[in-house]
Design goal:
One of its GO terms (molecular function) is unfolded protein binding. The chain has 182 residues and is mainly α. Helix content is 74%, strand content 4%. The protein contains five helices and two strands, in the order H-E-H-H-H-E-H. The chain has a two-stranded parallel sheet with strand order 1-2. The protein starts with a helix and ends in an 8-residue tail after the last helix.
């Protein structure tokens, strides 16, 4: 009898909960792909173009160093049988030193590029937070999620607002009101 009353109480509670949930307005949810907004917005493209121009020379320098290293290694491998053991060890030490210098320079360059990207994207992300917040308030959204956020496995195209945010950001950028990309 106790089990029956407990089960009956649970069923009634579930029915009341379902009725209450149905009576409430469902939450309005949207998703945005922020990386796409940055890549496709005018401000994001301007910032990325500046970064690419700034680091093009550095990337060429690194590629030249890499080519030099490969050539040195190939020459060493070709000449190794002709060299004395001491001369071969000296050349190998020289190669290892060049390799360490190259790796250090590459790591420094990668760090510098990441820092510059972060600095360039910071005002863009600040702009986007404001635009998304204003859009959410205006359109009555209860929740806006990042599309690539962990735990988001599927989103319907119906709730995607990425393109709308790109349009709003481009308008703000063209008016000169955007912080990013300048």
């Amino acid at each position: 009898m106790k089990k029956f009353l407990g089960l009956l109480g649970l069923i009634i509670a579930l029915l009341l909960l379902a009725q209450w949930a149905h009576a409430q307005n469902p939450p309005k949810i949207a998703v945005i792909h922020m990386q796409k907004v940055v890549k496709e917005s005018k401000a994001g493209q301007a910032a990325l173009k500046k970064l690419n121009q700034k680091f093009a020379a550095l990337q060429k320098e690194l590629q030249a160093k890499e080519t030099e290293l490969k050539k040195f290694k190939e020459d060493l491998e070709k000449k190794a049988p002709l060299l004395s053991p001491e001369a071969r060890q000296e050349k190998e030490r020289e190669y290892q030193k060049m390799l360490r210098e190259y790796k250090a320079k590459r790591e420094d360059a990668q760090f510098e590029i990441r820092q510059a990207e972060q600095k360039a994207l910071e005002p863009i992300m600040k702009d986007l937070r404001g635009i998304v917040f204003d859009y959410a308030k205006k359109e009555g959204f209860d929740l806006i999620l990042e599309k690539n956020m962990p735990g988001v496995y599927y989103t319907s195209d119906k709730i995607e607002i990425t393109q709308k945010i790109i349009e709003l950001y481009d308008q703000k950028f063209e008016k000169g009101e955007a912080l990013g990309g300048r």
